[in-house]
């Protein structure tokens, strides 16, 4: 038995002995992504209030990095086509199960990308996201949907795509946001007042 499977069994055994946690963990495993959406909005709000163009570029990139990470992870999962533990193992506690590929975990990719993106915006917000991400990946194993390796790989992939992709995306996003500051959409980008034109000399 591999270490990955052994750890899965240990967590699943913990799940078996904590039935009172099932509704809480299952709910978070399924709908906890809403929390990460809220954290992305908080990152945008912080960047807007700071009126820091670099921070706003990072705040805009964070959800785009998430989409990029998901676009990369889907073909990987299809190619690896690892059977989920809930479909491969017998006599285990299963609180949720799908039939698509298990490696990498979509949820782990998402929370890894969000946390890395928020790290570029605000470190305290990223710390909150990191703690929530740890709970999410544990929950995905706890409910029987993934092996530990699935969620660890997902976290790493999501974070790597978000951080690496930010570098080439930054100039284009910076240009786009600079352009938008000259439009009515300026209020979405910065809380600082629009500069008043200097009066013309008579």
From TrEMBL:
<keyword id="KW-1133">Transmembrane helix</keyword>
<feature type="transmembrane region" description="Helical">
    <location>
        <begin position="151"/>
        <end position="169"/>
    </location>
</feature>
<feature type="transmembrane region" description="Helical">
    <location>
        <begin position="20"/>
        <end position="46"/>
    </location>
</feature>
<protein>
    <submittedName>
        <fullName>Phosphatase PAP2 family protein</fullName>
    </submittedName>
</protein>
<keyword id="KW-0378">Hydrolase</keyword>
<keyword id="KW-0812">Transmembrane</keyword>
<feature type="domain" description="Phosphatidic acid phosphatase type 2/haloperoxidase">
    <location>
        <begin position="64"/>
        <end position="166"/>
    </location>
</feature>
<keyword id="KW-0472">Membrane</keyword>
<dbReference type="InterPro" id="IPR036938">
    <property type="entry name" value="PAP2/HPO_sf"/>
</dbReference>
<dbReference type="InterPro" id="IPR000326">
    <property type="entry name" value="PAP2/HPO"/>
</dbReference>
<dbReference type="GO" id="GO:0016787">
    <property type="term" value="F:hydrolase activity"/>
</dbReference>
<feature type="transmembrane region" description="Helical">
    <location>
        <begin position="125"/>
        <end position="145"/>
    </location>
</feature>
<dbReference type="Pfam" id="PF01569">
    <property type="entry name" value="PAP2"/>
</dbReference>
<dbReference type="GO" id="GO:0005886">
    <property type="term" value="C:plasma membrane"/>
</dbReference>
<keyword id="KW-1003">Cell membrane</keyword>
